[in-house]
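Students often ask what a holo structure prediction actually looks like on paper. The answer is less mysterious than it sounds. You provide the chain, you provide the ligand, and the output is a string of discrete structure tokens encoding the 3D arrangement of the protein together with flavin-adenine dinucleotide.
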Amino acid sequence: MSEREATEGEGPLLDNARPPANVHDALVAHTARPQDLPARADCVVVGGGIMGLATAFHLAELGVKDVVVVEKSYLCSGASGRNGGGVRAQWSSETNIRLMRESQDLCADFATRMRINVWYRKGGYLFLARSPERAAQLEASVQLQRANGLRTELVDAVRVKRIAPEVETTGLEVASYGPDDAVVFPWPFVWGYAKACAERGVGVFTHTPVTGFETDGRRIRAVVTEAGAIATDQVVLATGAWSPELAAMLGLSLPNRPHRHEICSTESLKPFLRPLVADLATGLYCSQSMRGELVGGVSNERVPEGLDQRSSLRFLGLYSRELLRTIPRAGGLRVLRQWGGCYDLTPDGNPIVGRTDELEGLVLLCGFMGHGFMMAPVMGKRVAEHLVRGAHRELFERWSLTRYRTGKLLEETMILG
Ligand SMILES: Cc1cc2nc3c(=O)[nH]c(=O)nc-3n(C[C@H](O)[C@H](O)[C@H](O)COP(=O)(O)OP(=O)(O)OC[C@H]3O[C@@H](n4cnc5c(N)ncnc54)[C@H](O)[C@@H]3O)c2cc1C
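The corresponding structure tokens follow.
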């Protein structure tokens, strides 16, 4: 696929809207026909976002034979096709820092490995702190990041002006700069995994909603879809913000909740902004794409809870205000596109991953807040290695659903949005 084909048609994908024809061709190229849905599979991955596809890919790489992915809509219809493509290792917990170091390497290598252009741009991430509390948070995080091998630095206003001259530094306490953080174009990651799955014999069935499950006591027997049932005893639930809905079909109650998050893209400008600029206090983030557009979003806590991928004018007001406070010269810019997707929020800002006490053969892979895209390459690998070899037990215990019952909640302060 040429770069032109990859970019044309990007824009607000409204619910139930069909993507433009050229994009549609790319979406269906690596998917299977509903009539070929198998009667049984060794493992069924529910959800064809980046988490599900990355997991299916690594399962196939590890030699698992009959892997099937079932997706209710088209590829990229969920958060994986609607996000900002930020890939950073600047986190406040050792677990996230280490995982993201590995995920960054996988992202950097993705284009070569999968033979698809992902527009990977290593311009760094610049986190701004405008209050003493935020400054203290950043300082603690940077210390931990450096202890874990990252090149992150605490920088003052003078350095900020050198790194990103258009950023307003009045009132700035301190900033952290991670030169190895990056931004990518998300869609080719999804297509790349789907293609690699297809090449390894994984059936990726789009427009195949899961409507229920067959269970026998504590065992899963089958995944029921609109196109028929697939007998299996191994299910990976990778349905992002829809996960509570799917888990409820299995009698499980999950604590994660969908939250609409909006984002927009402006007309193109000559390159002027190297890093992605972010402010943890307001949730503002903004980066300049390789096509010159400013792409960004902001926290909007007044959004009602629920599965809602629409856009609003209110968001444009909030975003403009925060963006102009940070990059005043953006004032004359025109917004060309805006769209929305769902964050998958958990009570402690960390994901829910691993097996459950209630059902054998079920693995949860959800609750990735607004940072699951960057985590997917490493998480797909970890989950597959766990399923095949029982590896990474410690990680999966830490991130298990059980922690909400035992009260062993985790903390992560570098959350955007
Ligand atoms: C606006 C926005 C900006 C973001 N920015 C970033 C960022 O910069 N960096 C980052 O790392 N992350 C970002 N994120 C978060 C990131 O996009 C998600 O965490 C990640 O894509 C989650 O991947 P997933 O595969 O788990 O979920 P999804 O991509 O949502 O996939 C879940 C899939 O499950 C399918 N499904 C639902 N119900 C069923 C059913 N009954 N049967 C079958 N399939 C079903 C859905 O159709 C969907 O395709 C952002 C998110 C949004 C919305």
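Residues 123-182+257-345 form a domain with the D-Amino Acid Oxidase; Chain A, domain 2 fold (CATH 3.30.9.10).
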